[in-house]
Amino acid sequence: MKFLHLEEQLSREEIKKLQLVRLKSAVARAKKSPFYAKKLKGIEPEDLKSIEDVKLLPFTTKEDLREHYPYGFLTVPKSEFVRLHASSGTTGSPTAILYTENDLNTWADLMARCLFMVGVRKEDVFQNMSGYGLFTGGLGIHYGAERLGCLTIPAGAGNSKRQIKLLKDFAVSVVHIIPSYALHLSTVFEGLGINPKDFNLRIFLIGAEPHTDETRRRIEEIYGVKAFNSYGLSEMNGPGVAFECEYQNGMHIWEDAFLAEIVDPVDLTTLPEGEVGELIMTTLAREGMPLIRYRTKDLTRFLPGECPCGRSHVRIDRITGRADDMIILKGVNIYPMQVEKVLMSMKEVGQNYLIELYKEGHLDQMRVKVEIKDEYFVEDMRVLKALQSKIAKNLREEILITPRVELVEHNSLPKSQGKAIRVIDLRN
Amino acid sequence: MKFLHLEEQLSREEIKKLQLVRLKSAVARAKKSPFYAKKLKGIEPEDLKSIEDVKLLPFTTKEDLREHYPYGFLTVPKSEFVRLHASSGTTGSPTAILYTENDLNTWADLMARCLFMVGVRKEDVFQNMSGYGLFTGGLGIHYGAERLGCLTIPAGAGNSKRQIKLLKDFAVSVVHIIPSYALHLSTVFEGLGINPKDFNLRIFLIGAEPHTDETRRRIEEIYGVKAFNSYGLSEMNGPGVAFECEYQNGMHIWEDAFLAEIVDPVDLTTLPEGEVGELIMTTLAREGMPLIRYRTKDLTRFLPGECPCGRSHVRIDRITGRADDMIILKGVNIYPMQVEKVLMSMKEVGQNYLIELYKEGHLDQMRVKVEIKDEYFVEDMRVLKALQSKIAKNLREEILITPRVELVEHNSLPKSQGKAIRVIDLRN
Ligand SMILES: [Zn+2]
Ligand SMILES: [Zn+2]
């Protein structure tokens, strides 16, 4: 069996046809919610003659979700919902996504399909190192793995020694892990004198934070696995929106469930295929809380060409950052991912780094603290100075300004057990 | 609809018949596992002529689970399992329970039945304040609530201010919470100047740690809810083993799924009905990992008489402690629950206390630190001295020795966000 679901085999033509049908019913359904009843006033499903007519529809933003929290987007009575995930934040306005039983089913199916696509099978033992609870990464992937029939270990985040014990005792073959934690965990393995390659590990599912291909290759090298990039966001259920296939050449978006567009983040016009812009998503299969043209703020592009795996679902490039993450320094736009890309491609650099923005007089400055591997952290100051200069020079080539570089010892920067904090802004 | 499942209406006769059938098949199935193949050698299902013949079967202990970790108890191939829960502990031998898809289904059904019994309905909004992950309290109750169709909020443990925000924003009616955390959370409400009675709260599910009826009444009073005691342990799936009904007069054990006995914890002989002893449990409905006569180490008794709710499933009294928890001090046996019972019945006592055991010369001593409510924590030393003496005297009446009593300010003892630590042993 090559595909888990029939939908994976649709041709581009069939996908577009299905999308139009589903977009129409998504619009009809959305209009049952207080928010869209107003927002979509005057727009009827039959106004959509082709899938390109999605442009006739207005955008939905995170601010809309906040302002109409908690029930403004619901299309059926509250009692029909069986799950709620909410953004954290005790102050400020949170956002919440509510799911009907059908929605949970659809989500679990999409997630199972992702897992199957990268080679996960019923016989696999799957350890989920994602935090459970309100964060969708835990329960989302959990339900998918159980649906596929994997022995699922709900390990949750943190507690590295216990993670390693479970990996060993149950001969775990598949792991869901945040990339920065995968790098951190490797230093715990090191400290214990254990080589993860001696374990039964086969597949890592990584994602939930932007990372570079250099980071992925490192993780694959350390653990002796294939590591697959994934994309999801709680507004679109959570994980299970897009996943790499065995070819690791971009992430297939499940276009039977989501309609994706790439637009200019400033003027919101559709960009030509291949250009980087903001990803816009419409739910095509969500019953209780459909979202129309949701602005993800994530920056990526559609990848051209066909994928050898046989799926014609469009592929997106890895997320290069969030529209919100952009650092403006001395008039130059910089994404943290650019810094990571440079650092992770250098063999001397360890598994952690930190970008600090600060003021020197009135001038904005950037300092990059870089963990150096033990074998390169020598006593000879001249060697260290040379390494420092090399890193600064490589960074300059990528980001066009020269940051201050500080070399720090392996394992000396704050460890992350959740999403890594890569940028600290000390300017205010 | 009064009952969720037909099994709840069985008469005693019918229960005993069903139990015998299921016990036979549990034995037959257990013998497929490496552990029981040996342990039950020479015993055949047909040797069991009546349910009382369960006494012919050997006991199973936590040590057995440890020694045959991780796969010694499995009756089907590992690939048939879809879930694993494990005890924590990075050192020492852990224990693990594995579940097939059928086992998860049975568990969710039992759990939904518990929730329905205390009055939870599809229309309720349910906030689960239990930690998720490897601990069964999170996912166990979660699956039951979703099965019943409640809007389920997987809030997880801790983060009290966020808990309160969710309770408010979603008009939560049902909460699963550890009793000591319920008491702690009330002090957070107090600090915020919010009265939880102004919320939509209706039902609290408490359990996961032994507590007294006095603690329950306090929780009910503070939150304006009915609070239902529950019993479960991961070796018997997790939560959903026994639950109070609307009459709050003991916890019905689901005898179609579990066979319960009470034995003398020392000589392991069956005790007459009504006597307190160790609870012994046999799984009657578990497919992948049946356990025969498992020694729970929990102390309780069967309650006599019929329950007005119409369910004839036997009721157990609240757990008075664990065989392991017993404190031996100056030759007297003391259970921490006895101390709690005394303290929580005194109006001056706040929501937290701590028992410390220490040495004075060669003598074992007990110190009880007791939080006092603000309005009783007056400046007049004579009043405080009198209160101190009163607490010591009340304790003496219950536990037969006079502990040293220390009055401390409201909110000054370490807070618990998980199971409370009530006893600290400083003797070694
Ligand atoms: Zn592909
Ligand atoms: Zn009853």
Automatic annotation (TrEMBL), chains A, B:
**In its keyword annotation, does this UniProt entry include Ligase?**
yes
GO MF term set: nucleotide binding; phenylacetate-CoA ligase activity
Q: What does the entry give for GO biological process?
A: phenylacetate catabolic process
Q: Which CDD domains match?
A: PaaK (cd05913)
According to its UniProt record, the EC number is: 6.2.1.30
Spell out the SUPFAM superfamilies in the cross-references: Acetyl-CoA synthetase-like
InterPro entries hit by this protein:
Adenylate-forming_Reductase, AMP-bd_C_sf, AMP-dep_Lig_C, AMP-dep_synth/lig_dom, ANL_N_sf, PA_CoA_ligase
Query: Can you state which reaction this protein catalyses?
Result: 2-phenylacetate + ATP + CoA = phenylacetyl-CoA + AMP + diphosphate
Record's keyword terms, sorted: Ligase, Nucleotide-binding, Phosphopantetheine, Phosphoprotein
Q: What is this protein called?
A: Phenylacetate-coenzyme A ligase
Question: Which top EC class is given?
Answer: ligase
Domain AMP-dependent ligase C-terminal per the UniProt entry, residue ranges: 331-427
Q: Quaternary structure?
A: Monomer.
- Species this chain originates from: Desulfonauticus submarinus
General function of this protein: Catalyzes the activation of phenylacetic acid (PA) to phenylacetyl-CoA (PA-CoA).
Pathways per UniProt: Aromatic compound metabolism; phenylacetate degradation
Family (UniProt): Belongs to the phenylacetyl-CoA ligase family.
- Domain named AMP-dependent synthetase/ligase: residues: 87-281
Reply yes or no: does the keyword Lyase apply: no
